[in-house]
Amino acid sequence: RQSGGHRRLRHFQRSMLDDARERVQLVSELRRGIERGELRLFAQPIVDRHRRVLGEEGLIRWRSPERGLIPPDEFIPLAEQTGMIIEIGEWVLDQACRQLAVWARDPATQHLTLSVNLSERQLRERDFAEQVRDRMDHYGVPAGKLKFELTESVLNTDLDRTIRLLSLLRADGVLTSLDDFGTGYSSLSYLRQLPVQQLKIDQSFVDTVVDNAQTAAVITMIVQLGRAFGLHVVAEGVETEPQFQRLAELGVDAFQGFLFSKPRPISEV
Ligand code: C2E
Ligand code: CA
Ligand code: CA
Ligand code: CA
Question: Ligand 2: distance of its center to the CA of 242 in Å?
Fold first, then answer.
């Protein structure tokens, strides 16, 4: 028994070490990858109940020559810990503004919005609103087209500052969406004060909406909340026709998921 415990302990230490080494390796590869222009912006459409495309969500990928196409969950948390998220976020913002300016020149795409995911660290940058205005002016982005997606975690610190920042952005024609809505626990009390225009129902609710009456009740409540506050309600992670139909019945305004399209390079929009 003793030797078994000893072996387990040794195994535990070795995997921790590997982990730390792996993380250091990944951080340096990511740093180099950013310099070499290995980041890519993908996009996934958001459609209305008639499947008309209203806009797109920008989703970052890292195309590493050694590791292939890496999804954000595998490097964004690391980028947040090391502060590299600031640089990555600036790159995403720049790409998004440039893309919106391109879309604005074509009658077939000029109605499209583009949503960009923000990390809490980016919001805490002193000059964030100025940075956004600068990029919008630089490319000539029309008002009402750029949207930021924030998770409820950004509401945990300095709510007053966040409210002022979102109001400032709103005045510059930038919209805000609350991402993964329903998974946090503080949403309801903050909603009244927050200058947001959209709620994005988390995929975990969409997954079970067809056969779980309690899930349907939660979604109904979010839709009613949205109506009361004048917010656009979007469901993400829609994979099946029955999910789409049920969500539409429940009053959801817009839909996003593999049923309509997987994320693809934004240049293919
Ligand atoms: P998110 O903002 O909740 O994005 C939705 C995720 O669900 C995306 O994963 C998307 O590809 C995936 N998805 C969309 N439709 C479906 C579906 O029908 N079924 C399933 N199973 N999944 C679906 P992705 O692209 O891997 O992004 C993961 C997370 O990484 C995002 O979650 C977001 O939090 C973060 N992220 C992505 N791009 C950025 C970025 O530019 N900046 C920051 N800070 N975070 C980003
Ligand atoms: Ca999102
Ligand atoms: Ca989400
Ligand atoms: Ca998510």
Answer: 23
